[in-house]
Amino acid sequence: GDSVTQMEGPVTLSEEAFLTINCTYTATGYPSLFWYVQYPGEGLQLLLKATKADDKGSNKGFEATYRKETTSFHLEKGSVQVSDSAVYFCALNQAGTALIFGKGTTLSVSS
Amino acid sequence: EADIYQTPRYLVIGTGKKITLECSQTMGHDKMYWYQQDPGMELHLIHYSYGVNSTEKGDLSSESTVSRIRTEHFPLTLESARPSHTSQYLCASSDQRNSFGETQYFGPGTRLLVL
Asked: Is any Cβ of chain B less than 8 angstroms from the Cβ of A88?
């Protein structure tokens, strides 16, 4: 079945460092891909998404490009802030089905 | 801004008690979901509904039950709580009309501790 694999954390960075969180997927067909973020004590919220190959999703300085040839959707940010400390989830879905999540990657940014 | 609410936010309860976790959304979404989030943060789908009077079990076996009598309301019930039920429970909803690339909106979660 479909699945999502993302890099294990925790990822610890200093403020203004470059961030990459790797995400690869296995799926039949053409899934939509998502990054969700969960701040401490809160539920998940959508960070960005892409619905077809070569699409780039972006929001709040974060970016991810849907790469069908490498089945990847890596999350990047050029300069992280302390406020970006959270858990990040990569996810996919096919039309009409529930989201399939990766296991989450904890990001900790220090000043 | 998503309008999906969960109550209570935190609950400490003794073994054997019956509990109901409430979830409501005001967006008119047809699809609703319950996830269990373990301490390692991994999410497990335990129940979902595609509309009124529709409920299905998710990927993770759960001793809880759900009902969907009204579009906006999707409560989860544990008939007899046990320490193994200690977890965070997240409710979500999405709009079935936009099934391709649909966004799920999450509530803030209920942290349950069973003693």
From this structure: no
Chain A residues touching residue B6 (CB < 8 angstroms): 43
* Gap between the Cα atoms of A75 and A89, Å rounded: 10
* B108–A42 CB contact, under 8 Å: yes
Could you give the strand order of the β-sheet that contains B4-7, starting from the edge strand earlier in sequence?
B4-7, B19-25, B76-78, B65-66
For A60-70, how does the pLDDT look when each residue is reduced to its tens digit (9 = 90+)? 999 999 999 99
B115/B111 Cα distance (integer angstroms): 13
Contact A43 B108 (CB under 8 A): yes
- Rounded to whole angstroms, the Cα distance separating A66 from B100 reads 15
Alpha-carbon dihedral angle through residues B111, A42, B105, A71, given to the nearest 10 degrees: -100
Q: Looking at the complex, report in whole angstroms how far the Cα of residue B97 sits from the nearest Cα belonging to chain A.
A: 9
Whose tokens are 């990569």? That residue is A90
pLDDT at position B100: 63
